[in-house]
Amino acid sequence: MESQGAKRGAGELKDGVTGGPSKRSRPAPSLPTEASLYAGPFPFYRRPSELGCFSLDAERRYHGDSRALRYFAPPPAHGSAPDFDLREGYPERYRPRNEEIREGLDHLLRWLLEHRGQLEGGPGWLAGAVVTWRGHLTKLLTTPYELREGWQLAASRLQGTLYLSEVETPAARAQRLTRPPLLRELMYMGYKFEQYMCADTPGGSPDPSGEVNTNVAFCSVFRSRLGTHPLLFSGEVDCIDPKAPSTQPPACYVELKTSKEMHSPGQWKSFYRHKLLKWWAQSFLPGVPRVVAGFRDPEGSVRSFRTFPTMEMFELIRSDREGWNPSVCMNFCAAFLSFAQSTVTQDDPRLVHLFSWEPGGPVTVSVHHGAPYAFLPTWYVEAVTQNFPSPPKTSCPED
């Protein structure tokens, strides 16, 4: 069940939307984001179960299988520091994804069409559910503690299902287009670390000599429920551990991260407050049990490893009064989903409610119709409204 904090936030919204003697006097709907409003017991969150998976190849083409899955293959635990040069191959063997192409929910929607009739409970289960990417939910979880980056989420309802898709904010677009060379190199280092730590086959050895192509991705599709809100979401998975105690996903999945070396208690405190929060949110949602991090020196060489069990991350920050609380994160997310479900009531794929948030303020809503915010592609809408035929064999066309 939702905590009192989540109920209070949703209740304030409901009163704001329905109060007043006439439509003209109604205040604009909004949702507060202060962490103190969402303190309370941890809400119900159903253990995530994997429904299926899909892969994206080097050309970003969709494949409804696990061909892009990689296997965790770390170096031996004993011996000297790993000889991982995260700058090696940059920029000659770097092929980043074209970020100007806004994919929306397209790949997840293609998977959904292929498996809609096979879902537990049948296609009707989706009525009332929320369909989105794991990354969008991660941003919701971290909102009460985020100090720098705002977000926008577009929401549309189709046959009872609520779809959430991120919209790039003007500030985020400006930052992306003016991304400094050092930041681009740091992004490469994260992918390069994965190359050092993963093999193409169980028991195989990593091959870091190849191209780093960020088009390639293995994505898992999960089912869960937060409070009263059924969830179907997908997220990229870095690798699977063939030696994990349980071979049942997501218990065998591993998240890989990099960070700069820490040399003082103050640096570790900042790391726990900010970066670890995002690592926890990203891994907790799909039930990935651990994050393996490589800590690099200023020259880009990995000097040490550390494993962070997802369910133990909060223990590292529990005594910090200015730290984060998982209950606050999940209660706010539950309150936002209630906010979105009660706000987006009309079943129209071209009608978009745009939820916007900037640090220090509430979540606000604006209403739009059609371009540029409508995100459910024509091929998906037509398939869903025509008794769910199989999707085309080729890549999904652009809307």
From TrEMBL:
InterPro entries in alphabetical order: RAI1 (IPR013961), RAI1-like_fam (IPR039039)
Residue ranges of domain RAI1-like in the record: 46-381
Keywords carried by this UniProt record: Hydrolase, Magnesium, Metal-binding, Nuclease, Nucleotide-binding, Nucleus, RNA-binding
Cofactor(s) needed for function: Mg(2+)
GO biological process, one term: NAD-cap decapping
Reaction(s) catalysed (UniProt annotation): a 5'-end NAD(+)-phospho-ribonucleoside in snoRNA + H2O = a 5'-end phospho-ribonucleoside in snoRNA + NAD(+) + H(+); a 5'-end FAD-phospho-ribonucleoside in mRNA + H2O = a 5'-end phospho-ribonucleoside in mRNA + FAD + H(+); a 5'-end CoA-ribonucleoside in mRNA + H2O = 3'-dephospho-CoA + a 5'-end phospho-ribonucleoside in mRNA + H(+)
Pfam families for this protein: RAI1
Compartment(s) where it occurs, according to its Swiss-Prot or TrEMBL record: Nucleus
Cofactor binding description: Binds 2 magnesium ions.
Molecular function (Gene Ontology), one example: RNA binding
Annotated spans, Disordered: 1-35
EC identifiers of the protein: 3.6.1.-
Family: Belongs to the DXO/Dom3Z family.
Task of the protein: Decapping enzyme for NAD-capped RNAs: specifically hydrolyzes the nicotinamide adenine dinucleotide (NAD) cap from a subset of RNAs by removing the entire NAD moiety from the 5'-end of an NAD-capped RNA.
Name of the protein this chain belongs to: Decapping nuclease
Phylogenetic placement of the source organism: Eukaryota, Metazoa, Chordata, Craniata, Vertebrata
